[in-house]
Design goal:
mainly alpha, 91% helix, coiled coil
Length: 100
Amino acid sequence: MSNNPNPNQPNKTQAILQEVDKVKDVMHNNIGLMLNNHDKASNLQDKTASMSNNARLFKKQTVTIRRQMWCRNMKLQLIIIAVVILVLAVILIPVIMKFT
């Protein structure tokens, strides 16, 4: 007879140790995945901040360009009005002088 009261005890211990090793492997894998996700989230946060800054800069530039284009359009309209008035004056002044 053996000194061990339960002959299945070493098998149970081995099974528990194997289960502990499996759980350790799963936990190591989960920790690795968590760190990867944290890195991805950090990168995403940096990209988001960069895009936000670029959007602000874009909006500022569009406002500046819109003002510049408005000024150019106004200048062009004033020049066209001045040319039309000048042409009308050149045509109408001689006609008016002829009839007076």
